[in-house]
């Protein structure tokens, strides 16, 4: 091997082979039976439990944990999937520290919540080894088009199929899964879990996935509305916000989501080039995932730079700590003003900021960070949209304004941009479509 | 999904999980919410005679025993039968049954031990639409001092007499609820059967004092410095109840008499165990009082999953399955030889098995350097104590020895079934020869 952590530029193979295996192994390994038993025993089976309220899909958490405690993990999985058909992925990727586990009464009592996420994984992993547990209601003869095979689209498609409708999912990418396949940090969903879960979900039948088909390019919304009884849009956020800083087009400057997508699709991590000095601009989960994975690929220095105070970062405390444990430096109150380089990226220049009554302003003082690679993670936005859809701020309104067209997931407002929120919205849209079709 | 529908002495319910006669079934509000939560049936809180209702204490009526993490293991109470007027209860029963025709609704009764009192109460409940009656011969406190409840339940002749009256004056199926505060549970069951009972239910609560306050020197729960014994129930009483159910299920005199199993049912597994030992359904009180009505959902999902896995399509497939395997000690196979085995990968090296075996059993566990614990087969009598004290489930297992192998402890070859009745050390066995 010729490259090391100290090799300048953006190069692959910075680490010995075994380091990649270790770095990209399961970030939170599954509980074994004994651990699950002990963890499940801690649940108090609260009345009108706060964890249920805190879960966007309202999984009956005390019930499923009790089912684990009494030795019926498959029944537990049913309880989970009844509300959240992607409960397996959510168990891996939900920021439980800001959702169910934050609400756990044992968090109040002992500062140590019941490990809901890991127990959810225990149950779903167990039951996914068996047959798909849902069957379809008698067929209605209705056909629904779902655009986007991300969590929102898949949850919608599954619920529709269960209600007896036939579903065609149009997906512009090669593989289904949306950001489960192209976005989620690789150490959160090891072993190609995203595709395994899609395959498992499709086993209900009645769902056809057509990949490589893009709404707007290959088919119009008008045509879908004419050909199908209903349309669901689960488009996610195809666009990426720009920095609007000089030098943004230099080689070495890249959208964090593209870097992550490339990483997810390259099983040989040693083949993935990464900089020696990496700078990530942003304050959310995407920034953390890009930064951490850059470190895991062998970057020597990785910094996240966020323009506001640390308490304003949308990455949770847990995520921030995770980044810091991985050796990522978090710099706050600094905004990029220029990207320097001559042919290739060399340095990024930042101005310190203060947040006052009038919003964010720069203090005038600047500093530079050495960088051969820069990831932009300052938020995603909607891609090109068909005409006629109502807006809710920068997103599609949940009431799309077009008869027979529903929308959910990241492309709509309401709730945080999380896998679990997308699942809830896809599921609820399916029920609304079902109600409207069956009148 | 397995069909959990149950037909218990002609009373149908969508599942075998009934709420026992107790506070959860004391009034319409509770019972409606219980049915909404999924309970298959209820036995209404015990009704007394017409007239001024009984009164309860106005201080604490419950005491408790907890396990680790303050898990409630045993509950004791000094509550009496319903303290609400009879007419109110009867009106509510009628309304609930009308609105929930598919659920079982049984009325529990306890009136003074004379024919007129029983005739009178049976006439009054006649038109409620209830599915049956349960005779509360079990309550161990308060009522027994008045010649009712356990006072009747401890005298088999009274049980038979009252049951006969009930069968004479009512067309309803009749369940006799038994008190465990008696030396031989088969006797009251036989009496109930002779009196014409359609079924027995058991157990009611066990005489108990849960704790003593060491500052005021009074038993708990304490009422103004004093305490009285109460009735114990909850997970702690399950083993006692299971044995009593099994005794009735396997006794020649009472075999086949339908049983409603009660006592510590908390999960699907508890219910399945009662049913395997011969209970046609189960009744629950403490689990609902501890966790709320919703707890039945786990019982339903768990039992149906279990039945599916076992290929059982109806609860009748489960009921009584374990009864043939309940036997007397003298018939146990003395040539069945097992040895404890410690799974070194699962072992967390706490040493509890060692302390238990070394100090109180057979010195059959070695403690090697590095806290490695290993069973010495030459000493192990397979008592199971290490298995029971190990904090890790399935870390220590009992491995039966194959026939033909030599037991390193006794030097004897493991051979065919032979029990105490033919054992050379048994003086009776010799006498029989
Ligand atoms: C890097 C990163 C990490 C994340 N980590 C987490 C995490 O740990 N936990 C968590 O809960 N959330 C996380 N999220 C957020 C989460 O992934 C999203 O909220 C979720 O995937 C939204 O689901 P969706 O179905 O709305 O959209 P997407 O997952 O984006 O799926 C939309 C799908 O629609 C397809 N599509 C788009 N336009 C068209 C078109 N015109 N025609 C056809 N198909 C189209 C896309 O190709 C895509 O497959 C992360 C996001 C990112 C970017
Ligand atoms: C507070 C309380 C009151 C009870 N009252 C009655 C009663 O009125 N009639 C009756 O037959 N049993 C009564 N019981 C006994 C229960 O019906 C049941 O037999 C017993 O609690 C065992 O079941 P468990 O372990 O599920 O609680 C009462 C139990 C409790 C805890
Ligand atoms: S449960 Fe508590 S609040 Fe309710 S009646 Fe009993 S003592 Fe009072």
Automatic annotation (TrEMBL), chain B:
Keywords: Iron, Iron-sulfur, Metal-binding, Oxidoreductase. Pfam families: DHO_dh, Fer4_21. InterPro entries: 4Fe4S_Fe-S-bd, 4Fe4S_Fe_S_CS, Aldolase_TIM, Dihydroorotate_DH_cat. It catalyses: 5,6-dihydrothymine + NAD(+) = thymine + NADH + H(+); 5,6-dihydrouracil + NAD(+) = uracil + NADH + H(+). One of its GO terms (cellular component) is cytoplasm. Its EC number is 1.3.1.1. The keyword Methyltransferase does not apply. GO terms for molecular function: dihydropyrimidine dehydrogenase (NAD+) activity; iron-sulfur cluster binding; metal ion binding. Residues 338-370, 371-401 form the 4Fe-4S ferredoxin-type domain. Heterotetramer of 2 PreA and 2 PreT subunits. Involved in pyrimidine base degradation. Catalyzes physiologically the reduction of uracil to 5,6-dihydrouracil (DHU) by using NADH as a specific cosubstrate. It also catalyzes the reverse reaction and the reduction of thymine to 5,6-dihydrothymine (DHT). Belongs to the dihydropyrimidine dehydrogenase family. This is dihydrouracil dehydrogenase (NAD(+)). It comes from Szabonella alba. The lineage of its organism: Bacteria, Pseudomonadati, Pseudomonadota, Alphaproteobacteria, Rhodobacterales. The gene is preA.
